[in-house]
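Why should sequence recovery work at all? Because a backbone constrains its sequence more than one might expect. Tight turns favour small or flexible residues, buried strands favour hydrophobic ones, and helices have their own preferences. The token representation captures these environments compactly. In the example below, the structure is given first.
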């Protein structure tokens, strides 16, 4: 039994105890395992335990900034040699990683001890974590609600105190949305800042980046220092930050900023009053800190961007299903994946190369518009999500919708769906709750969700901050100052922590 409160320390704090020999890595591993074994039956955050490998690693000499600190990987793209990685799908149950991903290599070099993998929706496609294969992950603040997705398992694990931080990635909000719903800090880095290889040079055409979900700003910053840098096959290269992101997180801003904010959905859909209030309250706080704050919408066509995002989404799903042949030893059928996934893949197969290229060009137009926008405004603020966390099962297709999806999937009417405008309906329905986060993915900008609001029901809501490409240090300085304010939500308030 360790002689201190494990949950009172973030990752850097635990590493400092190890360096001072006030605690042994095996003690941290056993404490984390105890918390996983106690809490996981309630929240279903961890779906693959690697306890024995972690225990063996504690006998090695501990090096690196996070030496001896337990953590978890996300069950998609963050591959560990010899371990299964299923992306939340039964289709990948037989797959074993042939090598460590570059992300995992860099984490290991930082000294972390990996205890397992966290739950994700199938192929990380939706903003809630309820895969058929593993069942739903629940929010530690209220077990009836989702922790979001697709990094929902990682967020629930951190928010319940299993580990101080966990692996995550973000292709349309998958770090920021669960961070928002679970009262955590979630930073999506600039495109190309962190590695996605070696098996890929780009993930989701550059929309997706790898990082972590954390309790503290400094852990996120310090891990970004460890993860950033050139990789051989990387399609996008962001110059390494010459300073220290960790130092930036503890360095006060040296000037007052021009900040724009918006509480309007970029696709014209409803925004819940609590989400609007979170931004307005944050804007007032920033004004008291001396910053110039004004209400200004981003200069982009939000609906056109959402459609271009979905075009990529459909194409990537189709490509993933096609690639299953190498895993299954045969062509995939609709029985191999969830009905909604199969339908998305069919729409992707019905999409032309011309449509796909034209949609990607919209990303570049928006990137130019936002870079110009940031010549006037240092930071752009929106709600992270348009609604508080949904209840478990609320966002699943209804029985009749599932029947329709299954029928369409079997007889292959995807082209008719496109002509009938069903794709536009999917765009509005799927993204109405989370319309704010995709912009940063498509433009390549850094963006973060900051825990600054609790609803009347006691559920967290994050506020999103975006900056120009390469400006993570500015966001981290802002986050570091906000973390010291009374508005910052302490995740240790939730019932399961």
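From this structural description, the recovered sequence reads:
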């Amino acid at each position: 039994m360790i002689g201190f409160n494990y949950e009172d320390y973030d990752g850097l704090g635990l590493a400092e105890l190890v360096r001072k020999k006030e605690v042994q890595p095996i003690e941290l591993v056993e404490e984390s395992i105890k918390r996983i074994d106690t809490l996981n039956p309630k929240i279903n955050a961890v779906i693959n335990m690697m306890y024995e490998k972690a225990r063996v690693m504690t006998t090695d000499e501990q090096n690196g900034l996070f030496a001896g600190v337990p953590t978890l990987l996300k069950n998609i793209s963050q591959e560990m040699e010899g371990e299964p990685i299923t992306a939340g799908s039964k289709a990948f149950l037989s797959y074993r990683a042939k090598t460590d991903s570059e992300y995992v290599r860099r984490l290991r070099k930082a000294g972390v001890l990996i205890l397992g993998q966290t739950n994700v929706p199938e192929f990380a496609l939706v903003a809630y974590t309820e895969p058929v294969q593993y069942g739903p992950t629940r929010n530690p603040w209220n077990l009836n609600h989702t922790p979001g997705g697709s990094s929902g398992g990682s967020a629930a694990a951190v928010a319940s105190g299993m580990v101080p931080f966990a692996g995550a990635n973000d292709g349309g909000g998958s770090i920021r949305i669960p961070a928002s719903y679970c009262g955590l800090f979630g930073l999506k880095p600039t495109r190309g800042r962190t590695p996605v290889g070696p098996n890929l040079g780009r993930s989701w055409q550059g929309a997706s980046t790898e990082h972590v979900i954390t309790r503290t700003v400094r852990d996120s910053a310090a891990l970004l220092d460890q993860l950033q840098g050139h990789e051989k096959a990387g399609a996008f290269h962001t110059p390494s930050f010459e300073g220290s992101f960790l130092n930036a997180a503890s360095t006060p801003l040296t000037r007052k900023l021009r900040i724009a904010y918006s509480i309007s959905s970029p696709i014209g859909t409803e925004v819940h009053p609590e989400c609007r209030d979170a931004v307005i309250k944050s804007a007032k706080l920033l004004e008291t800190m001396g910053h110039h704050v004004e209400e200004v919408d981003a200069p982009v066509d939000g609906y056109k961007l959402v459609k271009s995002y979905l075009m990529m989404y459909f194409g990537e799903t189709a490509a993933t299903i096609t690639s299953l042949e190498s895993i299954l030893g045969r062509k995939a059928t609709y029985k191999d994946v969830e009905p909604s996934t199969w339908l998305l893949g069919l729409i992707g197969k019905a999409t032309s190369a011309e449509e796909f290229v034209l949609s990607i060009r919209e990303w570049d137009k928006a990137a130019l518009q936002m870079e110009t926008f940031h010549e006037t405004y240092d930071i752009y603020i929106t709600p992270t999500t348009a609604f508080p966390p949904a209840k478990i099962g609320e966002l699943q297709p209804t029985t009749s919708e599932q029947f329709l999806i299954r029928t369409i999937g079997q007889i292959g009417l995807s082209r008719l769906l496109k002509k009938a405008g069903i794709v536009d309906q999917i765009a509005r329905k799927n993204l109405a709750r989370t319309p704010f986060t995709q912009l940063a993915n498509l433009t390549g900008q850094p963006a973060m969700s900051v825990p600054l609001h609790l609803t009347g029901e006691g559920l967290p809501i994050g506020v999103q901050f975006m900056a120009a490409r390469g400006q993570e240090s500015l966001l981290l300085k802002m986050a570091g100052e906000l973390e010291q304010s009374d508005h910052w939500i302490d995740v240790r308030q939730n019932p399961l922590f």
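A few observations help interpret the result. The chain has a mean pLDDT of 94.
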